[in-house]
Amino acid sequence: MNTDADTHAQLEMAWQNRDRDRAALQSVVTARRNDQLAPTALAYYRTISGYLAWRLGDFHQSCQLITSAVKTLRTGPPDAWLARALGILAGLELQAGHLAVAAELYGQQIQTARQIGDLEQEGAGLHDLGYSQRFLNADRAEIHLTEALRLFKETGYAHGTMAAHLNLGTLTAKGGRPQDALAHYEQALEYPPLQTMPEVEAALLRATLSALDHLPGESNRARIQQIEARLRALQRHPHPEVQVETALALARKATPAEVVSLLEEALRWMHPPETSTLFAEIHEQLSEAYEALGRDDLALRHLRQTLRTERRQHHADDAQAMRILEVFHRTAAFEAAAQREREHRAQLEGQVEQLEAHNTQMQFQSQTDSLTGLANRHQLFERGEVLAERASSSALLSAAMIDIDHFKEINDLCGHLQGDEVLQQVAQSIARWSGPQDVTARYGGEEFVWLRPGASAAHLAAQCESLRREIQNLPFPHLPGGGVTVSIGVCEMSQGRFTDLLESADQKLYEAKRRGRNRVVCKVVQSS
Question: Where are the domains of the chain?
Fold first, then answer.
């Protein structure tokens, strides 16, 4: 009879090999005896079962299993299985298009991983958080993915290293950096077990070809020929996604007739709900090929299918908005005067999308301080009040009030342009020290606020001391003394009003001023 330790060891081994031996993972799930398991062990099994169901495309079953596992695991102390379950649940929410919920869950995964010192799960959370933000904030996404890559390399997690290189390659390619993208793709292709993951290899090879197409050179042409040969070999593989990826890659420079032959065959391999992005891409390329062949009827049919697919994707992926407009315009070109009303409706939809994009931009601007790039006062209070409501004795909320010493004298003696530079440099230092769940804001004038949920005042004060030293060493050659200093007040809360937390931090700030400035003063706030 297996002991609890044997069960846990078996589950841990199955999880560690999940990306290399999915059959073994399936056997563990099939052999489980739920009636003999304690609630925690059952939650571990459900985490593995939910992961497997997700990878096999059973979204509904995966949601049920992972939601149940998270509910059970939250009742106990944080452990690696809670971090894993949170990461899977976040991935399911992301797949459903619930970006805000997914980001919150990734944050919880990262926080749990840091609590238990699990670098692999911290990297997994940062990686997936970065992936989820790739269209909303490419710069922040690259920061998260780069940090995840560092953690994966540190822990020797080869599959994570490959995935991070793949997604960094995609991100840098979209950012117009094909040389960086190529470097990431080539490193991902060095992942040893890639030969047993043909669908991933095919996608990587296609992405590598796309990067090489933007880079001239004889050596690159030789590499293109090598990749094309490997793709032709992969064409014989029975996996549907391999067939689709290889067809799209080989069609990129084919004649219209060859494109039709390749991609019509690929369509027969596809399961549209599982590969909707590729589904739209194939139909669009077929539309262009048929148009070039003079078959406007077939071109229009495939174009309409592209439109239907991209409409489904629109709410889950803002980056597709301009492509939808493009499809609308091209559809109108194929239709006669009788279709003018539909073209007009399409143009109106495009205007609505532009207005929505403008509103999104305006919302961002309304939440951000234009000079420093940090959150503004309104956003600080909006997010701070939410964090204060969630605070408890086991999940404190800490705040730091940061003030630049003698800032009025800097403005008076050196001018407002120098003063603005000081504000920007200090804000950048604060942002560097903040974590993904923190809130950093310009409170007003030369004052800033830094909120950290789930941390004590002592913890935040230690971070603030490092921040204070960094700011003290920033070079400002045009200022008297060549630099600036800050005074910082820190406190924490387990319950109460957010305004009370700020007031307490402000009192500690003024105590720091009274003691001579350029220091951190910390105090625990009693629950009210």
Answer: 254-367, 377-524
Q: Mean pLDDT per segment of 10 residues, for the chain of length 528 residues?
A: 67 76 66 67 88 81 91 92 92 80 89 92 91 83 93 90 91 90 90 76 86 80 86 81 82 85 78 58 84 86 78 49 34 42 61 60 70 92 94 93 93 89 95 93 94 95 96 90 94 93 95 95 66
CATH class of the domain defined by 377-524: alpha beta
H, E, C per residue of 13-63: HHHHCCCCCHHHHHHHHHCCCHHHCCHHHHHHHHHHHHHHHHHCCCHHHHH
CATH number, span 254-367: 1.25.40
- Determine phi and psi for 177, rounding to 5 degrees: -120, 70
- The owner of tokens 């003696």 is 413
Q: Determine contact, residues 45/34, Cβ cutoff 8 Å.
A: yes
Specify the pairing of strand 520-524 against strand 486-493. parallel
Q: Cα–Cα distances in Å, from 27 out to 22, 23, 31?
A: 9, 6, 6
Residues in the chain: 528
Which is nearest to 285 in space by CA: 313, 312, 258? 258
Beta bridge partners of 487: 403
> Rounded to the nearest 10 degrees, what angle do helices 218-234 and 240-251 cross at?
140
Tokens coding 25: 């993972």
Surface-to-core class of residue 228, CB atoms within 10 Å of its CB (0-12 exposed, 13-18 middle, 19+ buried) = middle
Residue 294, sorted as left (phi over 0), alpha (psi -120 to 50) or beta, turns out to be: left
